[in-house]
Specification:
Blueprint (H helix, E strand, L loop, with lengths): L1 E8 L8 E4 L8 E5 L6 H13 L24 E8 L2 E8 L2 E4 L6 E4 L2 E8 L2 E7 L2 H12 L3 H7 L1 E2 L4 H6 L2 H12 L2 H35 L4 H60 L2 H19 L1 H41 L3 H18 L3 H56 L2 H73 L28 H46 L7 H72 L3 H6 L2 H70 L5 H7 L3 H32 L7 H63 L9 H24 L4 E5 L14 E5 L4 E4 L5 H21 L8 E5 L7 H16 L3 E5 L3 H6 L3 E5 L6 E5 L2
Parallel strand pairs: 3-15, 3-16, 10-14, 14-15
Antiparallel strand pairs: 1-2, 1-4, 4-5, 5-8, 6-7, 8-9, 11-12, 12-13, 16-17
C-alpha cells in the first residue's frame, strides 16, 4: 500500500480542508512529520487509519471524537485517502457520526456515519462499496490483507505501540503472522484432522455399545462364552436332527399309503360321474331330432332364395323408374314457365339501348374540363393543408407553452423534495451498521433457541428411547413366558394323548410300568407346530428389538451431551445479549430495518430526483427553443395560404355550373366514374336478358325430351316385375310352401344353420365319447371295492404326533443355535469394522495430535510453519539491530516449551553479546526496545514481500521513539531508514527531536495557531 493523497476536513486540530500530496515528496521518500506538541502530527496517521478502518491508530479515541471543535457548524468532518496497490489506485472516504446544523430552520441534527470506496481508472471512478461502513471496512481488509490491529503493528507504528509487536506472546504473534503470510490453510488442516479424529472416536464408541447389546441379547458375557455355548449345543442339536429325520421318514410313508387310498376313491367317484352324464345326454335325443327336421325345411327355403331376390330387384327397379318419370314431368313444366318469363323480360331491350347512348354523350362533354379540375384540386389541397398546418402550429404552441408551465412547476416541487431527502439519506451509513450488528445478534440468539429446541427434542427422544427400551425388555419377558407356557401345554397335550391309548396291564410306552395310577389328561386345545414356531420367532424378534433399542439409546445420549456443550458455548458467546428476549430483538431489528430501508430509499430517491431535475432543466431550455421555431413557421405558412386562395377564386369563376358544383378533381372523377359504371351496367343488363332468353328456350326442349324417355323406361320396368313374381309363385308351390309367410317362417340365416349342424354333431360325438369312457373305467376297476380311509388316517395321526414331538425338540435347539450364529456373525462384522476404525484412527489420530501440538514440543502445524517464517524475519531484523546496537544485540526465537498450557514456539528473546547470555526482550531499555521494535518491523516488511503471494508492505509510518536514543544510536537508526528507503520504501517519521530535522531534510511541517493547524511541505 502506497499513500498518494490525504484530504482532512474538520478533523482533529485541522479546521478547514488540508490536503497532503505524498506524490510531491518523491517516488519512495524518507520524510519527517514535524511540528510542536498538539499541532496534529499523530492526527495525520489517525486520519489514514480512520479512512481505511474507521478507527484511529491509538484506539483511545473513536472517529466520532475526532471532530474539530473550532470548525463551523455547517462544515462536516470527513477524511479522503487515495492510495496505490500494485498497478491499481483506490480512494476511500469516511464521514464519522457527528452533530451538524439543520439545513432548514434552527438547531442541530445527527449526521450518521458514512463511507465510500472507489477504484480510480483515469478520470473515472468505479464504486466498490458505498453507504455501508462495515462493507467498506471488509473490502479494505480484503485489499490490504490486514485487519486494523495488524495494520497498527506492521505499517503504522503509533505512539506508545512500538513494544506491542516486540513483546507479543506466541498466540498474539500467531494471529498477526498468520494473516500476513496467509497460513490459514495449515490451521484448516489442523481443524480437519481434529474433526475427523473426533468422528472416528464417536463411531468406535457407538460400535462398542452395539457389540455389548448383541452379547446381552445372546445371553453371553463375552465372545469366548458365546463360542463355548455353541460348542456345548452342537451334539445335542445333532441328536435331535437325527431323531427328527427318522420320524419324518415314517410320516412320509404313512402319508403315501393314505394318499394312494384317496386316489382309488377318486377313481370310483369318476365312474359314477360318467354314468350320470351319459344318462343326461341320452335324454336330449328327442330335441335333437326336432332340430334336424327344422334344419331340412330351412334348406328347402334356401333353394328359393335366388328367385325371391330376383323379384325383389325388379320391384326396386319399377319404384325407381316411377320416381324418375314423375321428376322429369315436373321439370318440363318448370322449363316452359321459365321460357315465358324470359320472353317478357326481353321486351325492355330497346329502351335500355337508348339510355346507354345518352350517357355516353354526357361523359364525352365533361372529359374536356379534366385538366382545369386537376388544377383546382391541387389548390384546394394546398389551401386545406396550409390551414391544417396553421392549426397544428397553433395547437403545438399551446401544448409547448403548457408543458413549459408544468416543467417549471415540477422543478419547484422537486427542489423542495431534494432538501428533505438529503437530510434523511445522510443517516443511511450509521443505520446500516446498527442493522448489521443487530442482525448478527438476533441470528445468534435465534440459533441458540433453535439448538435449545433441538436439545429438548433430543431429551424427549432420549426419554422415549428409554421407555421403548423398558417396553422392549418387558415385551421380551412376556414373549419368553408365553413361549414357555405354549411349550408346556404342548408337552402336556402329548402326554394326555399317550395316556388315552393306555390299556390296563399293558406297559406304558414312556416309563414301561404296567400300572397306571394317575394318567395325564388335557382339557383344552393343543397348540400346533406353527403356533410354537411363531412363538419362538416372536421371542427372537423381541430380543433383536431390545438390542437395537439399547444401541439407539446410547447413541442418542451421546448426541444430547454434545448439543448441551454447544449450548453452553453459544450462551457464553452471546453474554449480556441474552438479557433481552428474541421478540424484543426482533422488534428492534424491524425498527432498524425499516429506518435503514427508509434511508436507503431516500438515497435512491435523491439520486433519481437529481437526475430528474437535470432532465427538467434541459427540457425547459428545449421548450423555449421550440416556441421560437413554431412562431417562425406560422408566419411562413400564413403567406402561402393567402396566395393559393386568390388563384382558387379566379379558376372557379370560369367553370360551368356542374364543375363548380362538383368542386374538385376527386368529385369530378367520381362523377365520370359513375357515368361509366351506369353505361357498363346497362350493357351488362342487356346482355344478361338476351342470354336468359336463349338459355330458357334450350332448357324447355331438353326437359320435354327427357320426360318422354323416362315414361318408356317405366313401362318396361313394370313388365319385368310381373314376370319375376310369376316365376317365384310357381317355384313356391313346387317346394311345398303355401304362401310367402310360410316361406319366410322356414328361412334361417347361414350362421343359424351352421350352429344347428354343429350342435347335432357335437351331441353325437359327446355321446359316443361318454360310452367309451364308461367302458374303460369299468374295465380298470374290475371287481375292486372302495378302500376305508378311517384306519389309515388314524395311523397317520399317530405317526404325526411322534414327528411333532421330535420336531419341537429340534426346533427349540435350532432356534438357540440360529440365535448364537447370528450373534457371532454380527460380532464378526462389528469386529472387522472396529479393526478398520482402529487402523484409521491410528493414522488420523496421530496426525491430529501432531498437527494440533498435543505431542513432543507441543507446537501446532501452523505455529511450526510460522516459526520457520519468524526465523527468516529475525535474521533480517537481527542484522539491522546488530548495526544499530553497535554489535551488542540479536533477536532469537525461543524454542523451549512454555510452562502449563500457554502457547509457545513464537516467543522472542534477545542475545546480549556483552554478557554472552540470552534474556527476555522485556528487559531491554526504552531506547533499546525502540531499536528492536523498529528492526523487527523492517525485517517483517522484507520477508513478507519476499514470499510469493505475500502482502506488499511498502510503506512504514513511525510515531516517536527516537527521543529515547543517544546521538550515535540515532544516527544508526536514521542510516537504517535511509537504506530501507533506497530499496523502494516510503518511510514517514513523526518526531520533534531537533537532530531529526538535521538528518531528514524532506519534511511535512505542521503549523499551529489559534484558528487551527496548517500543513506545509518543506524540501531540501
Amino acid at each position: 500500500m502506497k499513500p498518494l493523497t490525504l484530504s482532512i476536513t474538520a478533523f482533529g486540530p485541522f479546521v478547514d480542508t488540508q490536503i497532503l500530496d505524498f506524490r510531491a515528496l518523491g517516488e519512495w521518500p524518507l520524510f519527517l512529520i514535524n511540528g510542536p506538541t498538539g499541532a496534529g502530527k499523530t492526527t495525520i496517521l489517525d486520519a489514514i487509519c480512520f479512512a481505511l478502518y474507521g478507527k484511529t491508530t491509538g484506539n483511545e479515541r473513536e472517529g466520532t471524537q475526532m471532530r474539530c471543535d473550532a470548525a463551523p457548524d455547517d462544515v462536516l468532518t470527513e477524511v479522503t485517502f487515495e492510495f496505490g496497490l500494485g498497478d491499481k489506485v483506490y480512494r476511500v472516504k469516511r464521514v464519522p457520526e457527528q452533530q451538524r446544523a439543520k439545513k432548514n430552520g434552527e438547531g442541530f441534527t445527527v449526521q450518521k456515519s458514512d463511507a465510500l470506496l472507489e477504484r480510480i481508472e483515469g478520470d473515472s471512478a468505479t464504486p466498490l462499496a458505498a453507504g455501508k461502513v462495515t462493507e467498506v471496512t471488509a473490502q479494505i481488509e480484503d485489499l490490504l490483507g490486514l485487519e486494523v490491529e495488524q495494520f497498527r503493528q506492521v505499517m503504522v507504528l503509533p505512539q506508545g505501540q512500538f513494544r506491542k509487536l516486540l513483546l507479543a506472546d506466541s498466540k498474539e504473534r500467531e494471529a498477526i503472522f498468520g494473516q500476513l503470510f496467509q497460513t490459514g490453510i495449515y490451521k484448516r488442516i489442523e481443524d480437519s484432522l481434529k474433526q475427523k479424529a473426533l468422528e472416528l472416536k464417536a463411531r468406535a464408541k457407538e460400535l462398542e455399545a452395539r457389540r455389548a447389546g448383541i452379547l446381552e441379547t445372546a445371553g453371553a458375557e463375552s465372545v469366548d462364552a458365546l463360542n463355548d455355548a455353541m460348542a456345548a449345543l452342537a451334539p445335542e442339536l445333532a441328536r435331535a436332527t437325527e431323531a427328527k429325520q427318522t420320524a419324518e421318514a415314517k410320516l412320509a410313508a404313512a402319508k403315501a399309503q393314505r394318499e394312494a387310498a384317496e386316489a382309488k376313491l377318486r377313481e370310483f367317484s369318476a365312474l359314477n360321474d360318467t354314468r350320470l352324464r351319459l344318462e343326461a345326454e341320452n335324454a336330449k335325443a328327442e330335441s335333437m331330432a326336432a332340430l334336424g327336421a327344422q334344419l331340412e325345411r330351412a334348406a328347402l327355403a334356401e333353394s328359393l332364395a335366388g328367385t325371391w331376390h330376383a323379384w325383389e330387384e325388379r320391384e326396386k327397379e319399377r319404384q325407381s323408374a316411377e320416381t324418375a318419370a314423375a321428376t322429369a314431368e315436373e321439370a318440363a313444366k318448370q322449363a316452359e314457365l321459365s321460357f315465358a318469363n324470359a320472353k317478357a323480360a326481353a321486351a325492355a331491350l330497346p329502351e335500355l339501348d337508348a339510355r346507354r347512348h345518352q350517357l355516353k354523350n354526357e361523359a364525352e362533354r365533361l372529359a374536356e374540363w379534366r385538366p382545369r379540375m386537376h388544377r383546382l384540386s391541387v389548390l384546394n389541397e394546398a389551401i386545406t393543408g396550409l390551414g391544417q398546418a396553421l392549426n397544428a402550429i397553433d395547437a403545438n404552441l399551446a401544448q409547448v407553452r403548457g408543458r413549459l408551465g408544468e416543467t417549471q412547476e415540477r422543478m419547484a416541487t422537486l427542489t423542495q423534495q431534494r432538501r428533505d431527502l438529503s437530510a434523511l439519506s445522510s443517516m443511511a451509513g450509521s443505520l446500516e451498521a446498527t442493522l448489521v450488528q443487530q442482525t448478527q445478534v438476533f441470528e445468534r440468539h435465534q440459533q441458540l433457541i433453535e439448538k435449545e429446541r433441538q436439545a429438548q427434542k433430543l431429551a424427549t427422544e432420549l426419554s422415549r428411547l428409554e421407555a421403548d427400551g423398558r417396553q422392549a425388555k418387558a415385551n421380551q419377558d412376556n414373549l419368553t413366558r408365553a413361549r414357555e407356557l405354549l411349550e408346556l401345554a404342548w408337552h402336556q397335550g402329548q402326554a394326555a394323548m399317550l395316556a388315552a391309548r393306555l390299556l390296563p396291564g399293558a406297559p406304558c410306552p414312556v416309563c414301561g410300568s404296567a400300572e397306571h395310577p394317575s394318567p395325564a389328561h388335557h382339557g383344552g386345545a393343543l397348540p400346533s407346530d406353527d403356533e410354537l414356531a411363531a412363538a419362538r420367532e416372536s421371542e427372537q424378534q423381541a430380543r433383536e428389538m431390545l438390542s437395537r433399542a439399547r444401541s439407539e439409546y446410547k447413541a442418542q445420549k451421546q448426541r444430547l451431551e454434545v448439543m448441551q456443550q454447544e449450548l453452553a458455548n453459544d450462551a457464553a458467546t452471546l453474554g449480556d445479549a441474552l438479557a433481552t428476549s428474541l421478540e424484543q430483538k426482533q422488534h428492534a431489528l424491524g425498527q432498524s430495518r425499516e429506518a435503514c430501508h427508509n434511508a436507503k430509499a431516500a438515497q435512491q430517491s435523491l439520486q433519481a430526483l437529481e437526475r430528474e431535475l437535470e432532465q427538467l432543466d434541459n427540457t425547459q431550455k428545449q421548450l423555449l427553443a421550440d416556441i421560437d421555431g413554431l412562431q417562425r413557421q406560422r408566419e411562413q405558412q400564413s403567406g402561402e395560404l393567402q396566395k393559393a386562395s386568390g388563384e382558387q377564386e379566379s379558376l372557379v369563376g370560369a367553370m360551368p355550373e356542374l364543375c363548380q358544383r362538383l368542386g374538385n378533381e376527386q368529385a369530378f372523377a367520381a362523377h365520370l366514374a359513375v357515368l361509366s359504371q351506369e353505361i357498363d351496367a346497362l350493357s351488362g343488363q342487356m346482355e344478361k336478358l338476351q342470354t336468359q332468353l336463349n338459355d330458357a328456350q334450350i332448357r324447355q326442349t331438353q326437359c320435354n325430351e327427357r320426360s318422354q324417355a323416362l315414361q318408356q323406361t317405366l313401362s318396361e320396368a313394370r313388365s319385368r316385375e310381373a314376370a319375376a313374381k310369376a316365376r317365384f309363385d310357381t317355384e313356391l308351390g313346387a317346394k311345398g310352401f303355401d304362401d310367402v309367410v310360410s316361406f319366410n317362417q322356414a328361412r334361417m340365416s347361414t350362421d343359424d344353420m351352421g350352429d344347428a349342424k354343429n350342435r347335432i354333431a357335437g351331441w353325437q360325438q359327446l355321446l359316443a365319447g361318454l360310452k367309451e369312457r364308461l367302458a374303460a373305467q369299468q374295465e380298470a376297476l374290475g371287481n375292486a371295492l372302495p378302500p376305508d380311509l378311517t384306519e389309515l388316517a388314524a395311523l397317520e395321526a399317530a405317526v404325526q404326533d411322534g414327528f411333532n414331538q421330535c420336531n419341537q425338540q429340534w426346533q427349540a435347539l435350532n432356534d438357540t443355535h440360529v440365535m448364537y450364529s447370528r450373534a457371532r456373525a454380527q460380532l464378526g462384522t462389528e469386529a472387522e469394522v472396529a479393526a478398520r476404525l482402529d487402523a484409521e484412527y491410528a493414522v488420523v489420530g496421530t496426525l491430529s495430535d501432531a498437527a494440533s501440538g498435543m505431542t513432543g514440543a507441543r507446537i501446532s502445524l501452523q505455529r511450526f510453519v510460522l516459526g520457520v517464517l519468524l526465523d527468516d524475519v529475525l535474521i533480517e531484523a537481527s542484522e539491522r539491530l546488530h548495526r544499530m546496537s553497535k554489535g551488542r544485540y540479536r533477536l532469537l526465537r525461543r524454542e523451549d516449551k512454555a510452562k502449563g498450557n500457554r502457547a509457545s514456539g513464537l516467543d522472542l528473546e534477545v542475545e546480549d553479546a556483552y554478557t554472552g547470555k540470552l534474556r527476555p526482550v522485556a528487559t531491554l531499555s526504552g531506547g533499546e526496545s525502540f531499536m528492536a521494535a523498529l528492526s523487527l518491523a523492517l525485517g517483517l516488511s522484507d520477508v513478507v514481500q519476499a514470499y510469493a503471494g505475500g502482502i506488499k508492505l511498502d510503506t512504514l509510518f513511525i510515531d516517536e521513539g527516537f527521543g529515547s536514543l543517544d546521538q550515535d544510536s540515532l544516527e544508526l537508526a536514521v542510516r537504517t531508514l535511509v537504506d530501507l528507503q533506497s530499496s523502494g520504501r516510503m518511510i514517514g517519521v513523526i518526531s520533534h527531536v531537533t537532530e531529526m530535522k538535521e538528518q531528514i531534510q524532506t519534511r511535512v511541517d505542521i503549523h499551529k495557531d489559534t484558528v487551527g493547524s496548517q500543513i506545509r511541505l518543506t524540501f531540501a
